[in-house]
Amino acid sequence: MTYARGLLFAASAMVLAVLLVPLSAAGAAELVIVESTAPQLPAGQVINTTSPLVVPAGARIAIVGDDGKVNRIEGPYSGTPTAAAPAAGGAAAGGDKGVVPALSRLFADKGPSASSWGTFRGAEGGDGADTPPEVWAINMMHAETVCVPSGVEPFLWRADASQAASLILLQLATGREGAIEIIPGKQTAPWPPTLQLRDGGEYAIRDTGNTWERRLFIRVIPADKSSGIAQVAWMSDAGCVRQAKRLLTQLTN
């Protein structure tokens, strides 16, 4: 009888141990490093909330979870990420399971993916290597996918403002055109009011002399992506890599 009870106790302990493993794992969550001065903790690396984290003296990192909060950790630090300093910055209500993987992919992406519109005549020529300082500015001399928040009026930007520019913006789906006139010394111009801004819309921009032409692929960020981190994650998946990285830099500095 004693032997049978011993077997029953051992079996119960094994079942309890098996049940506790997934329960313990369920308490862990993933975080992504979005800014780092520690070489052993590169930006884009995904870490676990319950795993040991060591930030050496003089180094700092910023981490983000599904809730969109930005946590900054200054070294020297040794412990779990959840025991670090209080979070800073806005959080996405309820959390989004897609935030961490989207932000991680952002650091693995070297730039906009190649597509048919990206190989169009003069797509990467001119001063396309220059980038506008504003997140939501559209470089009129660079073919790329550009994201614009819902309800925000987009504007066009150029690096070289030494001369006047007379341009045509064409909405390919409808054939509608809008004229753009920029005076010398001015770098920006508003989006033509005659052209509707459509999510997934493809536009061609060229000078009136027809010496060059670029393609723009527009993505409109949904209105419910109101927090900065939520917008960065959405832009990462939409292919707006340049803008996503710039906005993330603003949020973590």
Task: Please write out the topology.
Blueprint: H1 2-26, E1 30-36, E2 46-48, E3 53-55, E4 60-64, E5 70-74, E6 77-79, H2 99-108, E7 137-139, E8 144-149, E9 155-157, E10 165-171, E11 177-182, E12 188-190, E13 201-207, E14 213-221, H3 228-238, H4 241-252
Parallel strand pairs: 7-9, 8-14
Antiparallel strand pairs: 1-2, 1-4, 3-6, 4-5, 9-12, 10-11, 10-13, 13-14
Helix pairs in contact: 2-3, 3-4
Task: Give a description of the structure.
By secondary structure, the protein is of the alpha+beta class. It folds into two domains: 30-108, no CATH class; 117-221, Immunoglobulin-like, CATH 2.60.40. The chain has four helices and 14 strands. The strands form four sheets. A five-stranded mixed β-sheet has the order 8-14-13-10-11. Helix 2 crosses helix 3 (228-238) and helix 3 runs antiparallel to helix 4. The protein is elongated.
Structural class: alpha+beta
The second-level CATH architecture of the largest domain is: Sandwich
- Separation of the first and last Cα atoms: 68 Å
Mean pLDDT: 80
Summary, kept brief:
The chain has helices spanning 2-26, 99-108, 228-238, 241-252, and strands spanning 30-36, 46-48, 53-55, 60-64, 70-74, 77-79, 137-139, 144-149, 155-157, 165-171, 177-182, 188-190, 201-207, 213-221. By secondary structure, the chain is of the alpha+beta class. A hairpin with a 5-residue loop joins strand 13 and strand 14 (213-221).
Pick out its properties:
five-stranded mixed β-sheet, disordered N terminus, alpha+beta, Immunoglobulin-like, elongated, 14 strands
